[in-house]
Structure formats: structure tokens, C-alpha cells
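Batch manifest, entry 17 of 40.
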Amino acid sequence: MTLLVNERGSLPLGFGGASISGEGAGYGFGDITENSAIELLLEAKDLGIRVFDTAPIYGFGLSEQRMGKAFKSCREEVFIISKSGVTWHENKRVDMSNDPAVTTKMLEQSLRDLDSEYIDLFMIHWPDANVDIRKPIEVLAKAKDQGKIKHIGLCNTNLEDLNKAFEVTQIEAVQNQLNLFERDALELFDYLRKKDISFMSWGTLDKGILTGRVDRDRKFDKSDCRSWAPWWKEMDKESRFKAMEKINPLLKDAGNSGLELALGHNLSYPEVSLLLCGARNSEQLNGLIKALDHLPSEELMTKVKEIVNGN
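Output type: C-alpha cells
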């Protein structure tokens, strides 16, 4: 897990860039002006966050463009992550493809949108059943040799793709969903530890369910993907709300918040190098950093996991 340990600075937090591009459509979480987005990014850097994660689908390029503007004069001070594979047509219909030509095109566009000569970590965003993972990885290995990217990683990946990718080049980081309710990523941890691969979690806050910001009555803006996305509508949220109804009294008695629980759960695994969390304003950003200083006890975490596991 050396990559992100060395690069991230002192905070185990990375800024999730989907939070600053909602009005651009694609994958985002509500409107935010460009000035507000840039100010928030720079505030995150000033507070010690060094890793900034984005992807073309976040606002159909808007997230990358705003990061490019924010960090143009301090590019060497931040570690930027972007991805290829989730693209779209002119009518904004989303497509997923790891075709090498698509990978090449998306990498070049990301470099332009970020207004940077290089990207610190470039990742394949999702597996593609129609394309052998080794083909886009060959594109990235060549781009690394050319200095366009510094490190290569896989998102939402599996052991089969990891093994194939390693036939081409070294994979230095993996980014998968991990939170109290989504723990499939744990199956990769033995492999990642043996290969010394950094792991970062997305979905750390389970889209707000763990923090309490999202409950049964929450309504979402049109520019928030949770207002329309099939994956959100089809997700079994009710069982999670019921679990939180049992967990919240334990948190209250212990003097902890749902945010502290969410961060503490993921950081309880030594394989986790970085937590990706989106913030939409200064209050949320500072709340994330403050929460790191008051994580739940091991005893409380054990009780919470028992509830989630149905014991």
C-alpha cells in the first residue's frame, strides 16, 4: 500500500470530485457554482488533503475542468486521479467501454480538461466483459512510458482482471466501493497486501445513509444523480435504514456520529490507504477532517458489525 501512503500527506482522505459537478449532469450530486467548486478544492488542499479523485463522467468533464483551473498554479502540490471507460454519446447517453481506442481518446481528453501535462494516477473505471483488460492496460503502460501518467490502477475490479493486468505492467492502486453495508472489496485484501497495492474506498459514506443525511424522506435535486439513477432506485435502502435505527442509539451513547462511524469502519482495515469522500461545502469538508480525530472504539465497531450482520 505504499503509493497512497507516500503521496497522500498526513490525512487518509481523498477529495471525491463527483461532488463539484452536479449541474454538468452525468454522475454528480447537485448544483455548485464554478467559483464555489474552485474555492472548495483549494480549501481542501490548504487543510492538508492532497489526493483529488475525478473522472470524465463526473459532470461530463466538468469536474476535471474545475480541478484543472483550481490547481493550475500549484499542480505539483496535489495528486490527481482520473479514469477511462465510462464515456457518452453526443446525446449524453452513457456508454461503458474499455476498447483501447476509447482509452486513448479519454486519456487525451482528460489531460486537456485537467490542463495538465500528466495525471498522477490513471485508472480503468469499470470492468468490460467485451474487452480483455490487458488491452487498455497496454495503452496505459505506453502512456506511462511517455510521461502522460505516473501510476496505473483499476477501479471496481476483481481478482481475474488484476491478475491479467499484472501480465502487462504493475498495478499500483485499486479503488472499490467499501462501507459498512458494502464489503465485497474485503475479498481482495489478501491479494492487495501480498502485491503491495494501495487501496482506496469510494462510497465511504454510502451516499449519505451512514451519516444520516439521507433517510426515507430525503428528496434530491434534479442535478443529483440519486434523483434518477436506476442503481439508486433499485438499491435495498430499507434494510440499511432499519439497521441505522438500531445503530444510532449506540452512537449517541458513545458520543460518536454516523460520519465518524463511516470513516472508522473503513480505517479499521489496515489495507485501506485512503478514504474518498465528497464534500459540497466548507462545513462538510471541515466535518470530515474533524471526524478523523474522534473515531469509534473497537468495542462499538464490533457491536455495529453484529447489527449489520444480523446477529
